């Protein structure tokens, strides 16, 4: 099996989780890029070039909201990435275990063993989906 097929199978199996993780990463990057704009506006207000009477309050609230959103997006992004990694590691372990059983068993004992491995893999994937 070539690495391309392995990558495509991971992408197809985890596409929803990858898309959600990418959305959180995009929110993190956008809010991170707004930080300098808020700081520049604070400098303008501090120098006395205030346009609106409540500009300081609006800037403070906007900066607080952006930083909270940035922190939340970063935490969710890392959390989702870890979940994807754990799902892939579990699948890799099951595949390695199944291959080990195939190579080590002889005759008719191989088929019930493979059936049990596939059944446990299916059961664990259903439980993992319920946890999400």
From TrEMBL:
The keyword Transmembrane helix applies. The keyword Membrane applies. Keywords: Membrane, Transmembrane, Transmembrane helix. The chain crosses the membrane at residues 17-39, 51-73, 94-122. It comes from the Eukaryota. This is Uncharacterized protein. The lineage of its organism: Eukaryota, Viridiplantae, Streptophyta, Embryophyta, Tracheophyta.
